[in-house]
């Protein structure tokens, strides 16, 4: 992996990274019964930043969708650089908030420019690679970064700062990994379709996860054949983007409860994916897990398997209506291509088998 | 000459074949900033957003725009009220200094008309703000946007500000001055940049990066653009069928500086090759003239009045039956320009010559010309930065001119904006093809394209014939080569080309452009 897939002009408008909604009606509009219908609609649900769109992008990539247009690449360049700037801005703002001074005077200058005037086009200039990297390595910024649970910051921060020398160049071409790592908040819904054999198509639907976005979910609950619910393992020390005083785990549990016990889903296969396993394992090595869960045995808190087992119980306890034999639980690192591919394949098999059983 | 398309930009014959190109909306990529300014295009985008359940972003944008306009109206009302108030203040103050009687106190209802207007404008603004807060900002609002902490900050600012609302609008005894002050304070809090700080940018960002990329690849848009046609599409979209960098349009602000860079050189090659909408206006013997049907700034071509109408593109292609060396020597000689194109070169002046430096990688000259095309027309001012170079792949010479901001000089003249490219490329051993592209707003007094056509149609053969005549004289009807010495190099064209040959040996900018 590394280099992007470039194919010649593709005027049909298919196979683009930025998927086009495949149907004019997001509700699917299919009147067919769940049995024998040619299209299986799978919803990706979960709270904000649980990794729905990351998994969606991965599925696009391993179904042969690449970055095909110059124009598309330019859009992606802007998104990557915007992520860099947003991370930098949030870190600088956090140093003020947390009262941690940025140590080096030249980094303070850089910070000022970031807050006041820097835009994505400026990052074409390679000198910004050095300046931003130096800011990133500043003891003040690093200290703020260590305390990142106290403010909003993307998971990709470290990755992007470590790749500045590529990103800050007029020759920069985003790689598949860059695209997977960057965050774009999903607004509304997006879908893609691909063949799964037997003349059937799987329609994967991605949605926004924040509170107001979730009100839109109900519009397409009717036509769903399976639900994949994502939750982030590494959010145990974080608060919500839309409500900074609200613990993310609590929110995820609440959303999970509402979805899994929804009467419309009684009969559909349900997959619970514990995402960001990679980040989670790194995090528990330095942070206390048991501090956030009073029922958890402190002695086990450095053991990821025990922690995940605990989380699993926590979530499964929320299920009051849905039959447990049609619920499957898995862990995932959505930023990891191979792992995503394997897990998604398992999810697909599970859903198909369940469909068959019906 | 080779038939390979990559060999030489375009022979006159090949160029003429490219005139008919069918418009296909799928060749275009919509530009976000332009698209959202266009009401009809916005309507289509909204239809798309509705289907993907994210229409609140566009609704917010539109309501915000309305709010912004209402705020402007308030500012106008406050300044007219303010200046009126100032005038009154002197009388009121002097009176109230003497005796502050009840008659000088004004109830809102009896306030004079400018204050009333201001109050009314503020009231309208408040109604719009309240509706936006209720629709988009408040938690659980019907079309709540998804912006996080900025949105919550707006809401808390609104709550504080709205505590003041009853005070502002209730009947009370205020002096006109006091009431104006209160309204002013209230107005600052309602300022869109204060109340909705950061929200517009955040909403546009989400719109641009999440849903817009999907929209620009959607059939709904392509069908719409196909129906609207080429002129409309070009006003809001870029032709990407030849790669993204081909359709580059300039903004007036690009024509300020005194630098020529590689991007501009590549742009010249692009203009030569990319012919989305050439209209052949002249086709005889070995001379062709083209004019672009549409303007090349973003925005619609509304050629009325004195407003910036956008650049038009002229292209002429002709052959001179002389070898490249003779042609190059001939055009390098300043004197000859006065012979083959005397009008355009009136009042030619060389202002400066600059070696390559930190700011500009090419040697350039700074020149001016002051032609008066017709007795009734005002004199033009052509401030040019020029460079020349030899391209090893084309085996010919390229002259690049660009205008710059010279508004301090010749204020009595109409200033030219634009680019001009001329390429002299050998066509075998005994002939040279000349490609001239003029990408400019020549600000002719006549608006109708047909008159411009006529003038241009007349101009090209005149120049071509003039060049042939001069070359015949200099070569004694092709019996000897053109003589050359450096004292003839009045424009430094020769010097610059030689300097660049040494500095960039064997370089081909054309080759590099092809690889792009």
From TrEMBL, chain A:
<feature type="binding site">
    <location>
        <begin position="155"/>
        <end position="156"/>
    </location>
    <ligand>
        <name>GTP</name>
    </ligand>
</feature>
<dbReference type="InterPro" id="IPR001019">
    <property type="entry name" value="Gprotein_alpha_su"/>
</dbReference>
<dbReference type="GO" id="GO:0007188">
    <property type="term" value="P:adenylate cyclase-modulating G protein-coupled receptor signaling pathway"/>
</dbReference>
<feature type="binding site">
    <location>
        <begin position="206"/>
        <end position="210"/>
    </location>
    <ligand>
        <name>GTP</name>
    </ligand>
</feature>
<feature type="binding site">
    <location>
        <begin position="275"/>
        <end position="278"/>
    </location>
    <ligand>
        <name>GTP</name>
    </ligand>
</feature>
<feature type="binding site">
    <location>
        <position position="186"/>
    </location>
    <ligand>
        <name>Mg(2+)</name>
    </ligand>
</feature>
<dbReference type="Pfam" id="PF00503">
    <property type="entry name" value="G-alpha"/>
</dbReference>
<dbReference type="InterPro" id="IPR027417">
    <property type="entry name" value="P-loop_NTPase"/>
</dbReference>
<keyword id="KW-0479">Metal-binding</keyword>
<dbReference type="GO" id="GO:0046872">
    <property type="term" value="F:metal ion binding"/>
</dbReference>
<dbReference type="InterPro" id="IPR011025">
    <property type="entry name" value="GproteinA_insert"/>
</dbReference>
<keyword id="KW-0547">Nucleotide-binding</keyword>
<keyword id="KW-0342">GTP-binding</keyword>
<keyword id="KW-0807">Transducer</keyword>
<feature type="region of interest" description="Disordered">
    <location>
        <begin position="1"/>
        <end position="33"/>
    </location>
</feature>
<dbReference type="GO" id="GO:0001664">
    <property type="term" value="F:G protein-coupled receptor binding"/>
</dbReference>
<dbReference type="GO" id="GO:0003924">
    <property type="term" value="F:GTPase activity"/>
</dbReference>
<keyword id="KW-0460">Magnesium</keyword>
<dbReference type="GO" id="GO:0005737">
    <property type="term" value="C:cytoplasm"/>
</dbReference>
<dbReference type="GO" id="GO:0005525">
    <property type="term" value="F:GTP binding"/>
</dbReference>
<feature type="binding site">
    <location>
        <begin position="49"/>
        <end position="54"/>
    </location>
    <ligand>
        <name>GTP</name>
    </ligand>
</feature>
<feature type="binding site">
    <location>
        <position position="53"/>
    </location>
    <ligand>
        <name>Mg(2+)</name>
    </ligand>
</feature>
UniProtKB/TrEMBL annotation, chain B:
<dbReference type="InterPro" id="IPR023393">
    <property type="entry name" value="START-like_dom_sf"/>
</dbReference>
<feature type="region of interest" description="Disordered">
    <location>
        <begin position="79"/>
        <end position="105"/>
    </location>
</feature>
<dbReference type="InterPro" id="IPR016137">
    <property type="entry name" value="RGS"/>
</dbReference>
<dbReference type="InterPro" id="IPR036305">
    <property type="entry name" value="RGS_sf"/>
</dbReference>
<protein>
    <submittedName>
        <fullName>Predicted protein</fullName>
    </submittedName>
</protein>
<dbReference type="Pfam" id="PF00615">
    <property type="entry name" value="RGS"/>
</dbReference>
<feature type="domain" description="RGS">
    <location>
        <begin position="31"/>
        <end position="225"/>
    </location>
</feature>
<dbReference type="InterPro" id="IPR044926">
    <property type="entry name" value="RGS_subdomain_2"/>
</dbReference>
């Amino acid at each position: 992996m590394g280099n992007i897939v470039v194919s010649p002009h593709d005027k049909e408008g298919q196979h683009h990274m930025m998927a086009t909604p495949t149907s004019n009606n997001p509700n699917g509009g299919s009147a067919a019964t769940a049995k024998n219908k040619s299209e299986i609609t799978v919803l990706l649900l979960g709270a904000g930043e649980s990794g729905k769109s990351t998994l969606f992008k991965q599925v696009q990539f391993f179904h042969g969708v690449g970055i095909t247009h110059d124009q598309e690449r330019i859009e992606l360049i802007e998104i990557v650089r915007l992520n860099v700037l947003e991370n930098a801005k949030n870190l600088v703002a956090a140093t003020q908030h947390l009262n941690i001074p940025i140590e080096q005077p030249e980094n303070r200058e850089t910070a000022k420019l970031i807050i006041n005037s820097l835009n994505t086009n400026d990052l074409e200039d390679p000198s910004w690679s050095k300046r931003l990297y130096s800011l990133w390595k500043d003891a003040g910024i690093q200290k703020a970064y260590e305390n990142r649970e106290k403010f909003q910051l993307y998971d990709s921060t470290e990755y992007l700062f470590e790749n500045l020398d590529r990103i800050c160049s007029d020759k920069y071409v985003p790689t598949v990994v860059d695209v997977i790592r960057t965050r774009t908040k999903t607004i509304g819904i997006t879908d893609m379709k691909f063949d799964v054999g037997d003349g059937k198509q799987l329609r994967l639907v991605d949605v926004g996860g924040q509170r107001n976005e979730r009100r839109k979910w109900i519009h397409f609950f009717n036509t769903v054949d399976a639900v994949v619910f994502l939750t982030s393992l590494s959010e145990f020390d974080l608060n919500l983007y839309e409500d900074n005083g609200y613990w993310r785990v609590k929110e995820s549990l609440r959303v999970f409860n509402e979805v899994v016990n929804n009467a419309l889903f009684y009969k559909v296969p349900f997959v619970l994916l514990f995402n960001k396993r990679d980040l989670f394992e790194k995090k528990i090595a330095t942070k206390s897990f048991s501090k956030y869960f009073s029922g958890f045995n402190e002695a086990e808190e450095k053991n990821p398997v025990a922690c995940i087992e605990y989380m699993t119980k926590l979530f499964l306890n929320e299920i009051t209506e849905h039959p447990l034999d049609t619920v499957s639980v898995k862990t995932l690192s959505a930023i990891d291509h191979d792992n995503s591919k394997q897990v998604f394949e398992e999810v697909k098999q599970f859903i198909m088998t369940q469909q068959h059983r019906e | 000459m080779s038939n390979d398309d990559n060999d030489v930009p375009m022979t006159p014959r090949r160029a003429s074949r490219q005139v008919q190109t069918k418009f296909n909306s799928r060749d275009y990529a919509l530009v976000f900033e332009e698209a959202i300014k266009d009401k009809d295009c916005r309507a289509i985008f909204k239809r798309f957003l509705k289907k993907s359940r994210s229409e609140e972003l566009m609704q917010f944008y539109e309501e915000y725009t309305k709010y912004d306009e209402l705020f402007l109206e308030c500012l106008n009302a406050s300044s007219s009220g303010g200046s009126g108030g100032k005038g009154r203040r002197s009388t009121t103050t002097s009176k109230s200094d003497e005796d502050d009687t009840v008659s000088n106190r004004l109830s809102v209802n009896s306030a004079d008309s400018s204050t009333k207007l201001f109050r009314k404008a503020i009231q309208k603004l408040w109604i719009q703000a309240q509706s936006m807060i209720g629709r988009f900002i408040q938690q659980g609002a019907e079309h709540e946007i998804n912006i996080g902490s900025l949105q919550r900050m707006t809401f808390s600012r609104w709550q504080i500000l709205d505590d003041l609302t009853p005070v502002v609008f209730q009947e009370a005894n205020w002096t006109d001055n006091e009431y104006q002050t209160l309204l002013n304070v209230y107005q600052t809090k309602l300022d869109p940049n204060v109340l909705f700080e950061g929200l517009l940018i955040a909403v546009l960002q989400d719109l641009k990066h999440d849903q817009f990329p999907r929209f620009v690849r959607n059939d709904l848009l392509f069908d719409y653009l196909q129906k609207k046609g080429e002129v409309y599409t070009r006003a809001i979209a870029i032709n990407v069928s030849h790669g993204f960098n081909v359709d580059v349009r300039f903004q007036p602000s690009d024509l300020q500086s005194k630098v020529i860079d590689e991007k501009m050189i590549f742009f010249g090659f692009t203009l030569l090759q990319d012919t989305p909408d050439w209209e052949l206006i002249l086709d005889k013997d070995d001379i062709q003239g083209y004019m672009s049907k549409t303007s090349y700034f973003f925005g619609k071509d509304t050629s009325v009045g004195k407003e910036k109408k956008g650049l038009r593109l002229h292209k002429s292609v002709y052959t001179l039956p002389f070898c490249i060396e003779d042609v190059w020597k001939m055009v390098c000689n300043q004197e000859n320009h006065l012979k083959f194109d005397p009008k355009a070169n009136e009042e030619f002046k060389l202002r400066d010559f600059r070696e390559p430096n930190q700011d500009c990688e090419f040697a350039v000259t700074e020149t001016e010309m002051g032609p008066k095309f017709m007795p009734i027309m005002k004199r033009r001012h052509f401030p040019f930065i020029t460079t020349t170079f030899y391209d090893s792949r084309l085996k010919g010479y390229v002259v690049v001119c660009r205008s710059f901001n010279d508004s301090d000089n010749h204020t009595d003249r109409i200033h030219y904006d634009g680019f001009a490219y001329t390429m002299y490329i050998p066509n075998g051993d005994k002939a040279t093809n000349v490609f001239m592209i003029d990408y400019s707003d020549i600000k002719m007094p006549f608006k109708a394209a047909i008159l411009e056509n006529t003038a241009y149609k007349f101009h090209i053969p005149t120049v071509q014939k003039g060049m042939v005549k001069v070359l015949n004289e200099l070569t004694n009807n092709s019996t000897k080569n053109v003589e050359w010495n450096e004292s003839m190099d009045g424009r430094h064209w020769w010097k610059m080309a030689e300097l660049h040959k040494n500095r960039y040996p064997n370089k081909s900018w054309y080759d590099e452009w092809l690889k792009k």
